[in-house]
Write a structure and sequence with these properties.
Order of helices and strands: H
Structural class: mainly alpha
Distance between the termini: 84 Å
Number of helices: 1
Helix content: over 70%
Largest sheet: none
Radius of gyration: 28 Å
Number of strands: 0
């Protein structure tokens, strides 16, 4: 096999490998972005659940605990 053919095959293999690595990194970044969005959504939901009773208590007590 001529040297030019071997170099061309090696370069093609390196390009395919680089594209595969970039695709893997991109999918990991997208997955971590989705996980972050899910965590933010869960945090905001939990915050809303725990904040609601406090707001109801403050309203029912007439705002007496504002002096803290």
């Amino acid at each position: 096999m001529p040297k030019h053919a071997r170099v061309a095959i090696l370069m093609a293999a390196m390009i395919i490998f680089a594209v595969a690595m970039l695709d893997l990194v991109r999918s990991k970044v997208e997955a971590s972005g989705r996980a972050l969005k899910t965590a933010v959504l869960q945090y905001s939901t939990i915050k809303r659940i725990y904040a609601a009773p406090t707001d109801v208590i403050r309203t029912a007590s007439g705002g007496q605990d504002q002096g803290r």
